[in-house]
Amino acid sequence: MRRLILCSILLLGLTALQQGAAGDNPPKAGRFTTTFTVRSPLSDVEEIKSRLGERMVAQELAARHGDSTVLRQPHRVGSVSEAAYNLADESYSVYVPSTPDASNRYGLLVWVDPQGTGELPGGYASIMDEFQLIWIAPVKSGNNRPLWHRLAPAIDAVYNMRQQYGIDADRVYVGGFVDGARSASFLAVAYPELFRGGFYLHGGYFFKPVPVPNQPGRYYSYFQMPPQAVFEKAKTHNRYAFLAGDHEMYEKSAALAKATYGSYVDIGFKHVTYLEAPGLGRRYPTANWFRKGVAFLEGVALEDAVDEPIVSEVTERRRRTARFKASPQPPADDVHLAPGAEVRLEAKAAQNTFLVYVPLDYTPERPWPIIFCYHGYNGSATTWPFKQVTKGEGFIIVGMNYATKGYHQELAPHKTGPEKAFFDEALRIVSAHLNVDPAFVFMGGYSQGGYSTTALGEQMLDRLAGRLVLGAGRRDVDQDPPPLDKLRGKPVFFGVGELDDPHYLRAKKAAEVYRQWGADVTFEAWPGETHGLSPNWLQKTTLMHEWLIAHGPAKQAAAKLAQARAAEQAGRLGDALALYNQAALILPDSEAADAAQRLFQQADAALADAMNAPYADATQRLNQLAETYAGSVFSDLAKQQLAGLLNTKADELEARARAAEATNDKAKALQLYDLYLSYFAGADRYQTVKAHVESLRKSK
Q1: Which one, of 210, 149, 138, lies nearest residue 177 by Cα?
Q2: Distances from the Cα of 118 to the Cαs of 12, 138, 154, 456, 630, in angstroms?
Q3: Is 224 in a helix, a strand, or coil?
Q4: Strands 396-400 and 352-357
Q5: Is the pLDDT of residue 316 over 50?
Q6: What is the C-alpha separation between 553 and 549, in angstroms, rounded?
Q7: Hey, how many other C-beta atoms are within 10 angstroms of the C-beta on 187?
Q8: CA 449 remoteness from chain centre
Q9: CA 662 from chain center: how many Å?
Q10: What is the helix (H) or strand (E) element at residue 386, kind and residue range?
Q11: Which neighbouring-strand residues pair with 210?
């Protein structure tokens, strides 16, 4: 059936496709890719750096070259070489409406897309048509390039499009997605003579420090303030639209957008708006929401705009619901768990509280290992010593209280029921707010907390990735062993001061017993330390952090890598790409990063090949890409391209039908319209065409 449809479409569209070859080679319309060779004077890399300012250039160099001394010595910003920027090596994705405005000119929206395609998303073409806006996006604007090499192509796009099309200088805008929004926000303010507005999806930068919400003393990156005359033009004449969602998994992006928007307002920008799309994660919004932003740039009030609900991505839903499906999630509250924060939370069922520490490097993009820390006798919930040992990175840490006084004082194995229930409740609560990996849950503690780790932990061996017994031995020494099939091969770390009497001997004995029972034991003695550890003891534990990394992130990454390879072998390349990316986020130096890059390039090349193929072949390839890379950005891009091809063919068929109408050949027009309604139900203009056909049938 699909082949018949494709053949019909190809036959119907052949004449239209052959048109346009004649004439005086007018500027192209529709979707295409182009290149330029002539540089704008404003795209000179040194000019861009001068507008960024030494501080932001130093930050970029430090991040790109791992040379933090550049930050402390900004005069060195010119000492680190970068590859040359060559415009001829750049390509651009373009969409040009078929007709300009009444003055025979177009507006121009330059888009910075960090995903490395630049394609106009599906459904947005009608917006470009409505406002007579040309879309142009550099293809290579990914974060693997220096910031100034992501900015220069956008500047050169304006310069060259002005040579080829009638562009209204007062309707030239720049926009971008996530990191592309940050690039766009710099261009819009630092080059107000070039760009008369900016549209930022899920991000933005400013020219003064913008505080990070709920993190005192921390600020987002910022560029230097433009010269006063430049700044006044940006502040009083130009227009700026921020758009983000309210999805909890991507609150950091929304927080950045809101904070930057607030700074625009606070400093007196006259024309600025913030659009919040309900339920939107970190992805492109629906066409209606994107239209709102474009309309604001154009200074147009939309009376027909409808606030559409956003359906969250399947990948987001999986991530939030796959964990602990059998247990109901506690209701969301106003808790804000920002990286570096330590917050006390309430476990209502246990009628108790606990602490949760969020690592400084936390991101919801990948799952995290978690350590449950139990305090000493007569103590209270604490994240010590694990926050100190990990340097606050790599692990979520939960500081537990004991559920009952009876267990706390005796550590009796038959009194662990409430402790396990409290543990489960705390884990569910934390997992509702943070991306926890349930396969990498650790338990540990010092002194009484260490002994509890043997008593309670031995009853939870099938749920723990490892245990850390510090300043303690085993509660029951060598009696009442746990199920040896569950203990065998399980990692256990013992750490104790050499002068800690009697706990040193108890720890040593416990380590020997566990080894005999088949556990994977690591033992570390801290020279010169008693039970009351000295301020310098942390320098004496050389193995604990290595042990945590080896049994936490390293195993995590290895597991993700194995899953990714299996998914790739099974042809589920979208899943494989996501898993490779997660493994690379866990351990950036692992081979997963290379594998992810390989798949990315492979998918990118396949997408490009599909778009260069004949229509029938292109649709077949794009459908296959959408299925093979399901769950990834390439599946979305393939679907967008399919929608674009569908709309192109639909528009061609509609044009032929209207041409038949114009010659009063109603029978032929209706025949063509019927074909349109049969095969193009997914086209953007389907409902409009349907209504027109109904009206045409009623007319005499």
Answers
A1: 138
A2: 30, 6, 11, 55, 20
A3: coil
A4: antiparallel
A5: no
A6: 5
A7: 27
A8: 38
A9: 50
A10: helix 386-389
A11: 220
| Cβ atoms of residues 197 and 188 within 8 Å | yes
Angle between helical axes of 633-662 and 592-611 (0-180°, round to 10): 10
318 alpha-carbon distance from chain centroid? 15
Measured between alpha carbons, how far is 665 from 662 in angstroms, rounded to an integer?
7
Backbone dihedral angles phi then psi of residue 632, each to the nearest 5 degrees: -115, 170
The dihedral through the CA atoms of 524, 528, 533, 537 has a sign that is: negative
Beta strands 368-374 and 436-446, pairing class = parallel
Fold: same for 2-13+28-298 and 348-551? yes
Among 694, 645, 659, 644, smallest CA distance to 674 is for 694
Block residue for tokens 């559920």: 403
CATH class label, 2-13+28-298:
alpha beta
Cα dihedral 325, 551, 343, 363 sign: negative
Q: Hey, how many other C-beta atoms are within 10 angstroms of the C-beta on 633?
A: 17
Q: Report the run of H or E that residue 168 belongs to, with start and end.
A: strand 167-177
Of 166, 176, 209, 172, residue with least CA distance to 191: 172
Distance CA 572, CA 635 (A): 11
Total residues belonging to the chain: 700
CA gap 242, 222 in Å, rounded: 17
Say whether domain 348-551 belongs to CATH 3.40.50.1820.
yes
- pTM, 2 dp: 0.50
Residue 261: DSSP 8-state: H
63, 98 Cβ separation under 8 angstroms: no
Q: Which helix (H) or strand (E) holds 170?
A: strand 167-177
Given the structure tokens 């927080």, which residue do they identify?
255
- Express each pLDDT in 235-293 by its tens digit: 888 899 999 887 544 466 677 788 888 888 877 888 999 998 887 776 788 888 899 99
Distance CA 691, CA 695 (A): 6
Domains in the chain: boundaries:
2-13+28-298, 348-551, 556-631, 644-698
What angle (nearest 5°) sits at the alpha carbon of residue 132, between those of residues 129 and 137?
85
State the average pLDDT over residues 525-542: 93
**What is the Rg, in whole angstroms, of the alpha carbon atoms belonging to the chain?**
30
Q: Whole-angstrom Cα distance, residue 206 to residue 190? A: 10
In tens, the pLDDT along 466-479 reads 999 999 999 999 99
Asked if 448 and 376 touch (Cβ cutoff 8 Å), the reply is yes
Amino acid at 109: L
The pLDDT, as a whole number, for residue 1 is 33
Mean pLDDT of 110-138: 87
What pLDDT does 347 receive? Answer: 95
**pLDDT > 90? residue 404:** yes
